[in-house]
Amino acid sequence: MGLPTGPDTDTFPFVKAKWFTDIVNQKREVRVIVIHTMEAPEKDKTAENVANFFQGLPSTKKASAHLCIDNNSIIQCVLDNDVAFAAPGANHNGIHLELAGFAAQSSADWSDVYSKALLENAANAAAQYCLKYDLPRKHLSNDELEAGDEGIVGHVQVTEVFKKSTHTDPGKHFPWTTFIARVEHFYQKRKNDLGLP
């Protein structure tokens, strides 16, 4: 379905990741959107560069995400219905968004011009997934993630709850309150544009 306020999740520019699990003949159940940082610099082509990195990985390093996002582009690397190699414990039922930048960023770093544009792109993409999978625009607590609730989490929470990785992104200064508010904004805008109740 094409949405009038930006690209649909099925029509982002596509650079196919090397590593993912292809889900055939069934619809994948998605319950969480997982936010990651790429651990890559805030530059105009970071999304494209990381997408190309995912495409060229050797057999000894399996990693991928559904979307790579920077300040001016969104690149899809794994189709929505396929499973990305992103955050063990939340791969099979997660949509994974890789954001340009670093987990070590400060609050000020997340408030600069680049990050504001990046976060708008990421919030818009997350809103599309919330609409597509009927997910609440909510940052889950670790207890809620463990209980099987639906919503949005950071990779660090998947690490803490499922204990299958060591990643701490998107970092302790990620602006969750602002981000969730922008996801809600884009979600409501899309619903209004589509004439949905």
Describe it for me?
There is one protein chain. The chain has 197 residues and is an alpha/beta fold. A hairpin with a 4-residue loop joins β3 (67-69) and β4 (74-76). The protein has five helices and seven strands; from the N terminus they run ββαββββααβαα. α2 (113-133) packs across α5 (176-194). The protein has a five-stranded mixed beta sheet. Strands 1-5 form a two-stranded antiparallel sheet. The relative contact order is 0.20. The protein is globular, with a radius of gyration of 15 Å. The model is unreliable at 1-7 (pLDDT under 50). The protein has helices at residues 46-55, 113-133, 142-147, 155-162, 176-194; strands at 20-21, 32-37, 67-69, 74-76, 83-84, 94-99, 151-154.
Keywords:
197 residues; alpha/beta; Lysozyme-like; two-stranded antiparallel sheet; 7 strands
Which range best describes the helical content: under 10%, 10-25%, 25-40%, 40-55%, 55-70% or over 70%? 25-40%
Low-confidence stretches: 1-7
- Using the coordinates shown, work out and report the CATH topology: Lysozyme-like
CATH superfamily: Peptidoglycan recognition protein-like
Distance between the termini: 17 Å
Structural class: alpha/beta
Shape: globular
Q: What is the number of helical segments per DSSP (H or I, 4+ residues)?
A: 5
**Succession of helices and strands:** EEHEEEEHHEHH
Largest sheet: 5 strands, mixed
CATH class: Alpha Beta
Strand order of the largest sheet: 4-3-6-2-7
Q: What is the domain total for the residues?
A: 1
Average of the residue pLDDT scores: 94
For the record, the CATH architecture stands as 3-Layer(aba) Sandwich
Number of separate strands? 7
- Rg, Å, rounded: 15 Å
How much strand? 5-15%
